[in-house]
Hints:
8-stranded mixed beta sheet, two-stranded parallel sheet, 32% helix, globular
Amino acid sequence: MIPIDLHTHTVASGHGTTDTIADLAKAAAAKGMTVLGISDHGPKTFCAGTPSYFRSLALSPRQRSGVRILCGAELNILNGGELDLSQDIQAGLDYVIVSMHRPPRRPASREENTADYLRALSQPCVRILGHCDNTQFPCDYEAIVRACETNHVIVEVNESSLMPGGYHQVPGVDTRENYRRLLTLCRERSLPVLLSSDSHGRSRIGEMPQCEQLVRELDYPEFLIVNHHLELLLRRK
Length: 237
């Protein structure tokens, strides 16, 4: 179990769970976690949180069951590189994760995916790049890592991608190899990375064995892993 998990989902994401923030916080406390980040899907995900939900998070309690709560969002990178929540609402959150999902995103070329990633990464409130290992959206990792360095965005290593049968995989392509490439590029530049459960509901929060195995295998420096050094996330652009 890792004591800080920043990519988790509640019932407000519209799928995968009926658990609330309070349910996740109680489970986090029972596991001995110290920080829980709530990052529900943006409004373009079917049945996910509305803009008013994300706006109201600024008023949400920041301590629940003895666990520090950070309020974020996992926003969709739409075709063209736009995000599905306005910047004024993003600015009221502790952090923003950006990632590609289908739907709402339509299939696009490697060049189009890369251009849209770069546009999203340049937006001022974006702090984390979510599961860009996703084999459904081929892209130029060298260009993306350079953009993360320029824009002070943290690359995520996603447990749901690495799990057997993970939903970001397509036949014949291994997300683990994508992560090896990404992490090698990040290590060359001494960039921080974040390990995430991407748990929908309480069941897997703080649990990232595949992520831990991979960073150990690549000897990724502990001081560059955000889960051990939260100040790497909270440092603004």
